[in-house]
Amino acid sequence: MRKRSGAAEEKSLIAALRRGDEAAFEALVDAYGPAMLRVARSFVRSAAVAEEVVQEAWLGVLRGLDRFEERSSLKTWIFRILTNVAKTRGEREGRSTPFSALTPEGTEEAAVDPDRFFPPGHSSAGAWASPPHPWEDVPEERLLSNETVAALDRAIEALPGSQQTVITLRDVEGWSAEEVCNVLGITETNQRVLLHRARSRVRRALEQYFDEG
Amino acid sequence: MARALRCMELVELITDYLEGELPRRDRKRFDAHISECDGCRAYLDQMRRTIRATGRLTEDQIPEPAKQKLLEVFQDWASA
Questions:
Q1: Residue A21: CA atoms inside 13 Å, Cβ hemisphere, count?
Q2: What fold is seen in the domain A114-212?
Q3: pTM attached to this predicted model
Q4: Does A126 contact B51 at a Cβ distance shorter than 8 Å?
């Protein structure tokens, strides 16, 4: 199930699923399961509930197979089902995830703490007062160490749901902006705003982590 | 020549820049600023490394018990 699986390949896969071919199903689960679980996690509180969401989504996929008309790719269709199930579950949990980036709550959020820039009225207003340290000094092994990965994971986990979903699909799973907009039903601008906030927060968390250690 | 960007503004344009969505004029201002500002260069570099590190979080497998459950779901569905 490479990223660019051809239309013909997809057709035969769908036919195999409809026939009840378990190996085909297993291959699909191997291909999309980890991403589905991670995306589900951005909507609900616990790993256990995320697993239930993924299970329910697959059931929805199987039940809907006969109705799948190949107007979208199988991947897009599967993840749309997943996010719908996850959204419903998240709302029930009281963890709602508004996908509009234009919620008043987040509108003013700055990428960097304003205190790190010279204040208005200063001759260098808006320039770095406390510039970031280059990470060129951080060895690559440290940047990719298990501890850093754990810190990254925590930072992503701490993001508001909609930011977490977008950064998961874009930067963890490597989807294009277009695919993300398609699955989540959001505009390009909205997607970019959410991605910007998410990346800015995660960078901030990593900076803090490196500065402390 | 347009007014120079301030660092505080640049950090808010960084995603548009990396996504290739910055209008040409702003892109020029961005590049001009970066070429002269160590702080913003470091910031851009940190952002790129953050994105790269985030890309390492993918997992190859879902937990085995979860997978077994999914296969059961499939068997039930297929035999129904």
A1: 12
A2: Arc Repressor Mutant, subunit A (1.10.10)
A3: 0.90
A4: no
Q: How many CB atoms within 10 Å of residue A201?
A: 21
Yes or no, beta carbons of A30 and B61 under 8 Å apart: yes
Boundaries of every domain in chain A: 2-93, 114-212
Chain B residues whose beta carbon lies within 8 Å of the beta carbon of residue A31: none
Interface of A with B in 100-119 (CB under 8 A): 110-112, 114, 117
Closest CA to A67 of A124, A14, A22, A103: A14
- Select A2-93's CATH number: 3.30.390.50, 3.30.420.240, 1.10.1740.10, 3.30.1060.10: 1.10.1740.10
Tokens standing for A131?
């510039």
pLDDT in tens, A93-145: 877 666 654 454 545 689 999 999 999 999 999 999 999 998 887 887 888 88
The complex's ipTM? 0.92
